[in-house]
Each structure stands twice: as C-alpha cells, then as structure tokens.
Write a structure and sequence with these properties.
CATH architecture: 2-Layer Sandwich
Structural class: alpha+beta
Strand order of the largest sheet: 1-5-4-3-2
Radius of gyration: 13 Å
Oligomer: single chain
Distance between the termini: 25 Å
Largest sheet: 5 strands, mixed
Helix content: 25-40%
CATH topology: YaeB-like fold
Length: 107
C-alpha cells in the first residue's frame, strides 16, 4: 500500500473526506453509492499511485459496489494540505480500456 493511500484511509476513517462535484455527478450517472465507496475504502486495491501529481497526491484504486462489481475511484489530497481526502471521480471501468479483471489499462 502506498503512503498516499494510507493517508487517505486515515483521513476517511477520521471523518475528513469530501466528494467533489464531479465525483457526485459521475457516481450518480453510473449508479454508484457514496456510502459503498466511503465504507469500502479499507478494501481498496491500489492500481496507480501519483504522489507528485500537480494538484496534490492522488491514487487510482479499485473498489467494489454493493453488488460486488468493480468501481475505479480517484482519491486525492489537495496540494499543500494535510486534509481532506477528496473523492475526485468514480466510474465503472470500460472493458474496452481495461483488462478483464479491471486492474490494468489495455495497451
């Protein structure tokens, strides 16, 4: 597990999390419930880690929804800040772009 993901989990468990407007829009469009994502953060599987992202450290993780279907979630921490954890976006992985197990980008 990356340092960024550990920090994000700690922030979420401490109640220091928010969902961006874009994140809400994407989850609504995809039928993803925020409670499933927030409550499932401990089971998140790290796919990509961006500790030096210009807007602040972030990660792409795979989580599961209430039906045990994969959901990709980008969580971040604003640059220069210690909190909150921000759900930037969440979406169902497109099979045309991701491997069958939704863990790797297709070449």
């Amino acid at each position: 597990m990356s340092h960024t993901l550990r920090q994000i989990i700690k922030l979420i468990e401490g109640g220091e999390a928010r969902i961006s407007e874009h994140g809400y829009d994407e989850m609504a469009e995809e039928g993803i419930f925020a409670k499933d994502i927030v409550n499932g953060i401990r089971k998140a599987e790290l796919l990509e880690d961006y500790p030096n992202f210009p807007k602040g450290p972030c990660v792409l993780v795979m989580q599961k929804d209430q039906n045990d279907l994969p959901v990709h979630v980008v969580w971040g921490i604003p640059k220069g800040k210690l909190s909150p954890a921000v759900l930037v976006t969440a979406y169902r992985p497109d099979p045309a772009l991701w491997s069958d197990d939704s863990r790797r980008r297709k070449q």
